[in-house]
Amino acid sequence: MIWPFVRDLLSFYATMSCASNRRVTAITFGVLGNLVSSISIIFLNKWIYVNVGFPNISLTLVHFVITFLGLYASQLANVFNPKSLLLWKVVPLSLTFCGFVVLTNLSLQNNTVGTYQVVKCMTMPVIMFIQTKFYNKTFSMNVKLTAVPITLGVFLNSYYDMKFNLLGSLYAGLGVLVTSMYQILVGVKQQEFQVNSMQLLYYQAPLSAGMLLFVVPIFEPITGEHGLLQPWSYQALGMVALSGIMAFSVNLSIFWIIGNTSPVTYNVIGHLKFCITIIGGFLIFRDPVSTNQCVGIALTLAGIMAYTHFKTTEKQEELQRAKLVMQKV
To answer: Which of these, 135, 227, 247, 315, could form a disulfide with 63 (CB 3.0-4.6 Å)?
Structure first.
């Protein structure tokens, strides 16, 4: 089922002009980097929750700190040049960033890996709704209809999940909503500030970490069992640090892909990790998968593949029309 997506994506690349070859190469490496880091961090975080019991919000705080340190090292190495921004203008993005990461981590902690991954697919229909309702963006009827099998598939998987629980579903639903708002806001702010992904994240990561410093003492223990400052084993600390490094990679690739394509495109590209994550959850954590769940997963994948086909076809038609206009000029 993945092949039609790859075929359509390669076909889309092939329609680009020779002048776009460098951009295509950059996008390809960005996508691959996002896939590897995104899949790795899911399994790392789930392992940490299951085997270590490291507190959730504290783990997010560690991720933000390591991300900022990585960005600081990057700017010292002249990978990018920081741009002066007004902090108060970055606050809304930082708030949604906190909510996005904390809620998705809570969903992963309280759901099976498969359900966590399947529910995230609802981000695409929610983004389409928000962009249509509030940003006056239009989508073709074919694209809109792909939301039907995705939504139905998510429902079937969640309903027949043997480890289904209301708390996990609540976290997953809120995570979808906040993630959708966050991904749209990233694209908007990068265009508004005229900054690249690193320049924006350079301000956002420490600001988000500062916000969580006030939140952690309220919701999680600081000392004692499962407290942030308890004496953790070297293995636990090593896994948390590795998770933070993966988070740095995920954050950079998310910002870059959304800023250079679109929120919906990012979600479609990101679904390449869908099958790997579900299979990995089954093999590594022995998550049970029923027949009805498999039907739901297949429906969700079918909707994603259909969306990709329609979207890339429409993009090809736009490129062909643009070439005809240029030839007439």
So the answer is: 247
For 51, the token pair is 């085997």
For the entire predicted model, the pTM comes to 0.77
Instruction: Quote the tokens at residue 8.
Output: 């359509």
Query: Phi-psi bin for 136: left (phi > 0), alpha (psi -120 to 50), beta?
Result: left
Q: Left (φ > 0), alpha (ψ -120 to 50) or beta: where does 53 sit?
A: left
- Cα separation, 207 vs 224, in Å, equals 27
CA separation for the pair 289, 287 (Å, rounded):
6
Yes or no: say if 263 and 185 are a contact pair by the CB < 8 Å rule: no
253 DSSP assignment:
H
Contact 158/76 with Cβ under 8 angstroms?
Answer: no
DSSP state of 140: -
In this structure, the number of other CB atoms found within 10 A of the CB of residue 141 comes to 7
List the alpha helices (DSSP H) in the chain.
2-14, 21-47, 56-76, 87-110, 113-120, 123-134, 141-145, 147-159, 166-193, 197-219, 234-260, 263-270, 274-285, 291-328
In terms of phi and psi (left: phi > 0; alpha: psi -120 to 50; beta: otherwise), the region of 86 is beta
Tokens describing residue 24? 């295509």
Closest by Cα among 174, 168, 169, 183 to 124: 183
In whole angstroms, give the CA distance from residue 38 to residue 179.
15
CA-CA distances (angstroms) from residue 41 to 38, 101, 272, 314? Answer: 5, 12, 15, 33
Give pLDDT tens digits for 262-316. 555 665 666 667 777 877 777 887 777 888 888 988 898 888 878 877 877 787 7
The C-alpha atoms of residue 249 and residue 255 are separated, in whole angstroms, by 10
Give which of 187, 260, 258 is closest to 25, Cα–Cα.
260
pLDDT in tens, 32-71: 777 788 888 999 999 999 888 899 999 999 999 999 999 9
> CA 175, CA 159: separation in Å to the nearest integer?
18
A 10 A CB-CB count for 121 gives: 23
